[in-house]
Amino acid sequence: MMVQAGIFLLDAVTGFLTTALLLRFYMQAFRVSFNNPIGTFIVQLTNWLVKPLRRILPGLYGLDLASLLPAYFLQLILLLAIYASHIGVGEIPLESFFALLLWQGALATLRLSLYILIAALILQAVLSWVNPYSALGQPVAQLTRPFLRPIQRLVPLIGNIDLSPLIALLLAQVVLMFLR
């Protein structure tokens, strides 16, 4: 019971921080402005980890590795804790450990990235109906634009309705099915 509670708390904390780090990574990669409530919150929440890591980890092709690698390692820590709670700390086979290290951590980070995309698409759709001029509308639109633009080139507007967010949601769900 205590182990389950510990795993639950670790999952909540690592999930929250990993989401913030991935949002910071994607906001920088897609050149989303940080001059909004989400951007300010993300920067203030993650600066304690990202700023010191930037001295060690330089960017790669414009990608902020100081935001991406900690997100990966947080997911890895969570997976190792779950794995150790089921098998036992001393019983982890070495080959399973390396497979977990390289593969499962990356898959968990990719799955969380897809969940962020799905949440951003849904938030964008809701904001477009409720309050299209919200302070969150522009950064969310900038975050989803790289995923929607290729679909918008292929699928025309139907009765002035853009179906690209729906198609992007379906594609993200399909990719998630393959990542499980």
Outline of this structure?
This protein is mainly alpha-helical and 180 residues long.
Description of the molecule:
With 180 residues, this protein is mainly alpha-helical. The chain has one domain (2-179). The protein is 79% helix and 0% strand. It has six helices and no strands. The protein has helices spanning 2-29, 37-56, 65-87, 94-130, 137-154, 164-179. It is globular.
Strand content range: under 5%
What would you call the shape?
A: globular
Give a short account of the largest sheet: none
CA-CA gap between termini: 26 Å
Q: Which stretches are poorly predicted, pLDDT < 50 over at least 5 residues?
A: none
The overall number of domains is: 1
Order of helices and strands: HHHHHH
Q: On the 0-100 scale, what is the average pLDDT?
A: 90
Number of DSSP helices? 6
Record the SSE blueprint.
Elements: H1 2-29, H2 37-56, H3 65-87, H4 94-130, H5 137-154, H6 164-179
Helix pairs in contact: 1-2, 1-3, 1-4, 2-3, 3-4, 4-5, 4-6, 5-6
Q: Which short descriptors sum up this protein?
A:
79% helix; mainly alpha; 180 residues
